[in-house]
Design a protein that fits this description.
By secondary structure, the chain is an alpha/beta fold. The protein has two domains: about 5-275, Ribonuclease H-like superfamily/Ribonuclease H (Nucleotidyltransferase, domain 5), CATH 3.30.420; about 320-410, Serine Threonine Protein Phosphatase 5, Tetratricopeptide repeat (Alpha Horseshoe), CATH 1.25.40. About 55% of the residues lie in helices and about 10% in strands. The protein contains 17 helices and seven strands. A hairpin with a 7-residue loop joins β4 and β5 (about 120-130). α9 (about 240-270) packs across α10, α11 (about 285-295) packs antiparallel against α12 (about 300-315) and α13 (about 320-335) runs parallel beside α15. The termini are far apart. The relative contact order is 0.10.
Length: about 425
């Protein structure tokens, strides 16, 4: 069977009124919807789709000024630049029937959080709840209306946590199943920034772990997200919405936590060195993000360059080897030779990574070319070659350097 035939079958199964094989169940009773409407402020939005609007307080209020450092920190924001406004942000999260991105996985709950009315310590959240499979197209239409940038004067920026790999893939797959053009939007996925800041210090970079450890958020009796699929399937069979309402509350907390995390990223962007220490963030990784951003975007404000140097210095002071090496190279380029050599000496003496041997190489080059000290250059070359962490490419380079230094010494200054 070809791909075209397979898609026809999938689309036929997905049409309103069709029931996927193995999911036979009781029809949704009106009492279930009435319970959700009466007790949890839902209203009808489409066929078998409910909608409600709630508000949630943030653990960290949003500063509405977005410095250039934030665009360097968060992928997906770089294209917005100074035009970004708090009101353009849409915090997005799904609850789904599974953890894979295959065409059999369906989203049954979607939440969109926005800042409105000049209030930035509270976020307004619109939730859409699918009550049964036959109403999926109506559910998807509601999501499409929010995600489509043509519905806004200024294109929105969708902010998610692991949304690029999961949420947006599921949504795109479902639109393709129904032959609908998927929406196109700016997408800022905070997972990648969170990993770079905390992967060395936290047992995991799940949103829950970051909320608990970094944001100091305690959710109490929150229903774990991993239970959401089973609770929705149970609702389809029993029409009992009691636990499903708990899944909706979990989804609200996810949006509030996501917006709070974004607020913390923005606080760090305003004062990277001090805030990185306050929030236990990896200053070395943050400096590398800024460095990559500067090189990709060419000429940028000088303060971004100074921020990178300050972060490198802070991280190097805490023993981060790559930060120390890069700081030493920058100091050499700026002709601050004494400071650079001191950093390289400390790094080389550690002899605990390939960067130690690379520091010896930098010292050897500076000794030979600037100080014209062949004996000193030979010493650093030999020390690099004795390192158990030296890479093959660096070893080849240092062996050639040693032979050249020997040849140079035979014509002038002896090595021994």
């Amino acid at each position: 069977m070809g791909l075209t035939d397979r898609l026809k079958i999938i689309r036929a199964l997905g049409k309103e009124g069709a029931i996927p094989p193995g999911r036979e169940r009781k029809p949704v009773e009106a009492v279930s919807a009435r319970s959700l409407i009466a007790e949890h402020s839902f209203e009808n939005a489409d066929t078998l789709t409910l909608r409600r609007t709630v508000s949630a307080a943030l653990a960290v209020p949003l500063n509405t000024v977005f410095p250039e450092t934030l665009f360097a920190m968060v992928p997906g924001l770089a294209g917005k630049g100074p035009s970004l406004k708090a009101e353009n942000l849409i915090f997005f999260d799904l609850e789904t029937t599974g953890l894979s991105c295959g065409v059999g996985t369906v989203a049954f709950l979607a939440a969109f959080g926005r800042f409105e009315g000049g209030v930035y310590d509270t976020i307004k959240i619109d939730q859409y709840l699918l009550l049964d499979y036959p109403g999926e197209t109506g559910f998807l239409r509601q999501i499409l209306r929010i995600l489509s940038e043509q519905n806004y004067a200024d294109p929105p920026v969708i902010v998610s946590y692991n949304g690029k790999r999961f949420d947006s893939q599921i949504i795109n797959n479902r639109y393709l199943v129904y032959g609908i053009q998927p929406p196109v939007f700016y997408h800022a996925d905070l997972l990648y920034t969170a990993r770079s800041l905390w992967k060395k210090t936290l047992p995991s970079c799940s949103q829950g772990e970051i909320e608990k450890t970094i944001l100091k958020i305690e959710r109490g009796n929150d229903i774990p997200g991993c239970r959401a699929p089973d609770i929705w399937f149970s609702f389809l069979k029993t029409n009992d919405a009691s636990e499903l309402s708990g899944v909706c509350e979990h989804n609200v907390l996810d949006i509030a936590g996501l917006a709070s995390m974004f607020s913390v990223f923005n606080l760090i962007a305003h004062d990277p060195v001090r805030r990185a220490e306050e929030y236990s963030a990896d200053a070395e990784s943050l400096a590398l993000r800024i460095r990559k951003y500067r090189r990709a975007h060419g000429i940028l404000p000088e303060n971004l360059n100074e921020t990178e140097k300050a972060l490198l210095k802070s991280a190097a002071g805490r023993g981060a080897p790559l930060a120390a090496f890069l700081l030493g190279k920058d100091l050499l380029q700026n002709k601050r030779y004494g400071e650079a050599r001191l950093i390289f000496e400390r790094l080389a003496e550690r002899n605990d990574s390939a960067l130690s041997a690379a520091a010896d190489r930098a010292l050897a080059i500076d000794s030979e070319r600037r100080l014209n000290d062949t004996l000193c250059a030979f010493f650093y070359t030999e020390r690099a070659l004795l390192s158990t962490h030296i890479t093959n490419s660096l070893k080849t380079d240092m062996l050639k350097r040693r032979e050249r230094l020997k040849a140079h010494a035979s014509a002038g200054q002896p090595l021994f």
